[in-house]
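[Q] Does anyone have a clean structure-token version of this?
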Amino acid sequence: MRPPLEIGRPTGTTVNNNYEYSNIIMFRKIRKYISFSQASLTGRAVTFIFYLSSFIFLATGCAEHRILITSEPAGAKVALDGQDKGITPLSVPFTFYGKREVIVEKDGYQTYKSIIPVSAPIFQVFPFDIMMLLVPYPFVDNHSFYFILEKQGKPDIKKSLERMERLKDHLEEKLKEDGTAKPR
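[A] Here you go.
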């Protein structure tokens, strides 16, 4: 048995055996639940904001943020913020700006440890960051750092022993002046 015809059904459309409605009737039923009244200013504003945000979301570019670390000599191990990241030359993506701790080390060379500043470029500062959303191609934000590692010399044992003796003598003198403890 066929369901009765509904008011507003365009001519020439019929209901199939599964009782599915035509596209036009379905659109009207859906629109009834999601559309706002034509007289409603709030409805128009919400609709405008929805379409504008959809356009911005679909037509925007993005920024790619990377820290580039190179060293002389190449092949040094890099740790960034306490996490091993790899071997130089190195390109590491990041999300947040600020100060980062970097440790660069290689066998036979002195370890370099420092705090490096990673500051935001002008297109990431308000209000330019909002305007950059409308640009349809991505920006690349590279922060490059170059480290020169010094060769680690062999320790001079004679100089180290002389320095230790001077330090021992100095401490013994201080202890004698204070009179609080006796040297061994």
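[Q] Thanks! Anything notable?
[A] Residues 5-24 have pLDDT under 50 and may be disordered.
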